[in-house]
Amino acid sequence: MARGHCNWLLTPSAMGEVDAAAAASGIDSYGLMEKAGQAVAAAVLRLFPGAERFVVLCGPGNNGGDGYVAARALHETGAPVALFHFGDPATLKGDAATARSRCPIEGAPLDTCRPAPGDVIVDAIFGAGLARAVPPAVADIVQRVDEAGLPVVAVDLPSGIDGRTGVVMGAAFRARHTVTFMTRKPGHLLLPGRMHCGSVETFDIGIPFRLVEAKGERLFVNGPEAWDAAMPQTDAAAHKFRRGHLTVFSGGAAATGAARLAAAAGLRAGAGVVTVASPKEAVAANAAHLTAVMLKAVETESDLADYLHDERRSVFVLGPGFGVGAKARAFVTALAAAGRRLVLDADGITAFAEDPQALFSAFADSVPRLVLTPHEGEFARLFPDLAADPALSKVDRARQAAARANAAVIYKGADSVIAAPDGRALINGNAPPSLATAGSGDVLAGIVGGLLAQGVPAFEAAAAGVWLHGDAAQRAGAGLTAETLINHIDRWH
Ligand SMILES: NC(=O)C1=CN([C@@H]2O[C@H](COP(=O)(O)OP(=O)(O)OC[C@H]3O[C@@H](n4cnc5c(N)ncnc54)[C@H](O)[C@@H]3O)[C@@H](O)[C@H]2O)[C@@H](O)CC1
Ligand SMILES: [K+]
């Protein structure tokens, strides 16, 4: 794999187009299948040298073709191999038919397969071409292999996982390892697909990368390649206001902690100045806990108008602990009208559930300066039609939401998707499960605010924020709390 390409993602249909383009350019398509199957055999032997039997399950398309190559390659090493086919192998076409004709092992129908202890399963039933829920015979073998607890190595994708959406189509193998080709597919990262893949290996079968790039869909795994160039450069002499001013709105006296978490995270992420803007009744509670972060009473819309007279107060986080209601809507509208940049999180999102269009209109007419950070429930409040459409993947949903809101959208979860109004999208993969803890979302909103304050554009700030959040969580370890998470946020560069 060429350097810098390992974060590329292609949907199965785009990969199919790449395949076709490779064949059209004169590349021998059977040669690609041969390399794919050989790579699978090599992975299986490397991971399970002590297997008593390799059980190769072959489907009716080219995924099955890879399986026939792998079965032959395993057999040629002298290993015991059993082969089972789904569908009538006599109806195989093209490269898959060639692969079968070169495989010396007599296969048997899938429903006669009886997995036994010591078996290692090679799953080559369906890959990129899975088009609907798996048939009963496949659901049945998935269940039997699962119950027997046997290790599975999946070819391209675990059969039953939709490579575009990550959705389980009826039933799907839980692989220990998956060997895919050229690039990963969204279903390797999106849940629940990711949980079915085990470790994922991307093998270069020799398609020139320019053909992959030509079919690229502006979809990548989130990582520094996606946003490094937009990040602030460290300059020890930089005046603190040049590193930007972030303001985080606090909730009332009983709900101040969330804003302080966001503020502290924004400071760690490199904002020059951070202020908590607090209702009067909560000033004392906030004052008791803030040191490096400044504090200012901002109670009413008129207070906010006064506060906005200082143009340096350019970036805001509104939502954590703020409360859902007319005040949130009025503040957001005022910030939008004043040309400010905003991370809208939690209660700030829910406040617009009755009239999302009011939010979208307020930020419609500019370079994106809104970052929305919905989890699944909040996403459904702002974008009910997108959330309810079963044909859309999480990437599709985030992209359409970003375009509608003219915002960078962080559609949160263990598989957070970050999308821009212009169609760029990233799937995040570095968040450990420990990150699902109280206050974690407040910290994320603060990091993104801190990056916006330093002049990072909305999409890059959102993407870098999600990645730095996951990175901090990895270093904070299993018992992390929102407070310890903040202490592990690294300034970039
Ligand atoms: N560049 C690449 O990525 C390459 C891909 N290859 C392999 O080719 C695969 C894609 O091949 P195909 O497009 O033939 O797709 P698949 O082999 O994944 O499946 C397609 C076949 O399954 C049938 N099918 C789909 N869903 C079904 C369901 N629910 N129940 C019953 N039948 C169903 C279809 O009618 C078709 O016959 C990849 O996953 C990969 O393993 C390799 O051969 C090498 C080159
Ligand atoms: K498969």
From TrEMBL:
PROSITE patterns: YJEF_C_2 (PS01050), YJEF_C_3 (PS51383), YJEF_N (PS51385). (6S)-NADPHX binds at residues 62-66, 127-133, 156, 258, 321, 375, 442. Its EC number is 4.2.1.136, 5.1.99.6. The keyword Lyase applies. GO terms for biological process: metabolite repair; nicotinamide nucleotide metabolic process. Its cofactor is K(+); Mg(2+). Binds 1 potassium ion per subunit. AMP binds at K412, G413, A414, D415, S416, G441. Residues 15-213 form the YjeF N-terminal domain. Pfam families: Carb_kinase, YjeF_N. Residues 223-493 form the YjeF C-terminal domain. K(+) binds at N63, D123, S159. GO terms for molecular function: ADP-dependent NAD(P)H-hydrate dehydratase activity; ATP binding; metal ion binding; NAD(P)HX epimerase activity. SUPFAM superfamilies: Ribokinase-like, YjeF N-terminal domain-like. Homotetramer. Belongs to the NnrE/AIBP family. Belongs to the NnrD/CARKD family. NCBIfam families: yjeF_cterm (TIGR00196), yjeF_nterm (TIGR00197). HAMAP family: NADHX_dehydratase, NADHX_epimerase. This is Bifunctional NAD(P)H-hydrate repair enzyme. The lineage of its organism: Bacteria, Pseudomonadati, Pseudomonadota, Alphaproteobacteria, Hyphomicrobiales.
